[in-house]
Amino acid sequence: MTNNDTALCLIIGSGPAGYTAAIYAARAGLKPILYTGQEPGGQLMITTDVENYPGFPEGVNGPEMMELFRKQAERFGTDVRMEMVTKVDFTGPVHKIWTEGGEEVSAHTIIISTGASAKWLGLESEKRLTNMGVSACAVCDGFFFRGMEVAVVGGGDTAAEEATYLSKLCPKVHLLVRRDEMRASNIMQKRVMNSENIQVHWNTEAEEILGGESVEGVRVKNNKSGETKVLDIKGFFVAIGHKPNTDLFKNWLDMDNTGYLVTKPDTSQTKIEGVFASGDARDKVYRQAVTAAGTGCMAALDAERYLTEKGII
Question: Containing H/E element for 49?
Fold first, then answer.
């Protein structure tokens, strides 16, 4: 805290973006306060094996990685608080937040790293088999299914991208589309249709993912004919979109039509001075741990530069 009890830097949310921002901010002497939110560590807390993050040649468990991030942030002096921010006030040069416990904290800079949450179908078997063959990220987990048949659920650009990516690794990809047409852009639809090993199942919905300790198949139903059948697959990818966790900032910050925070070009700066955005709360394209960490670094550097320019540090 500064002499007037106002924090130099306050970070809302954890995960790769939040913890990386904390590491950089702490090393710069900003004494950051980080509120972890409802899901400390973010989406990586439900990821078993992370094999595409540099520095872990043998791979690393998602929760273990986030624990290492947290320890590194605390090592440099980050005040990590296991609480959720429930209200913000970005009026004036000093910003305010309130926590679920009723605490009010003021800060000269705020870094938002609240992430995004994958949308799920809501099947009991989907939840039970998450990380045992069920995934919401083909780029993250597709490698584990090389040489195996898989299914992708969805009809938008995300599903088309996931199916196309997996078609380069898997002998056959079943794309389950619940309507008789896709919502994906024309170019993405052409890529799907031009991939010989992608089979599109129109008017098709997943009823149950089959398997005990791992995915062994999926029972699907044609919502027009009522016919059901089982597809023999080993991987089940849900690609019906993500929801950015940005509701807290409505009426304060600019967002796109799906709720992702908008920042000024080549920066993490939002339209409010001293408020910066990082990670999946602003990134709907890449959504990777390494890119989230990169934007966390950007946000901390931008916050430090802002504080210097304003003569606060």
Answer: strand 49-50
